[in-house]
Design brief:
Elements: E1 30-33, H1 39-45, H2 54-59, E2 63-70, E3 73-84, E4 91-100, H3 109-123, E5 129-131, H4 138-146
Parallel strand pairs: 4-5
Antiparallel strand pairs: 1-2, 2-3, 3-4
Length: about 160
């Protein structure tokens, strides 16, 4: 049975994501969950806005960063966060980013990353999750649709906490 990702748990703020359980291998590509000590890989994958805080990211036990490697070269990743809940399920999984290098796209890497993420979620006892994307992000919407997702209506409110 696939992991069930249910938008009702998030007041409609999600896209459902189902994952083909058969898709867990890609020829010539290895997949590994990052851990403290892998900060170099996080820095290599930073594509915009600076490097962030790789040490804090990997030190957080509720962060899952699964990376696809072609040899030693990181070529894709999925970043997700386990969100504890006050009611309902113990926790949900927020799929924050999915990215694959242009040179390695259309090889099933993103689908495999999502399938591996299902395995990790199950190991943690997480039964539900969600991912957000822009309505006009055709590649992301196609990925989530092909993974069995069902689109949901989302209202997003953005806040700035920067001191002006």
């Amino acid at each position: 049975m696939p992991l069930v990702l249910d938008t009702r748990a998030f007041a409609g703020h999600a896209i459902l994501l189902g994952v083909d359980e058969e898709k867990t291998e890609v020829a010539g590509v290895a997949f590994r969950l990052l851990a403290p000590g892998d900060e170099r890989v996080v820095r290599e994958l930073a594509t915009y806005g600076g490097a962030g805080d790789p040490e804090a990211l990997l030190a957080d036990p509720r962060t899952l960063m699964l990376v696809a490697f072609d040899g030693e070269l990181p070529v894709g990743f999925v970043l997700a966060h386990e969100l504890p809940r006050r009611h309902g399920e113990r926790a949900n999984l927020f799929v924050y980013e999915v990215e694959v290098a242009e040179s390695h796209q259309r090889r099933g890497i993103a689908s495999t990353l999502l399938a591996r993420l299902v395995e990790l979620a199950r190991e943690r006892g997480i039964r539900a999750g969600f991912v957000l994307t822009e309505p006009d992000n055709d590649p992301a919407n196609a990925l989530y649709r092909s993974a069995g997702g069902a689109r949901s209506t989302v209202v997003e409110w953005d806040f700035s906490y920067a001191a002006d």
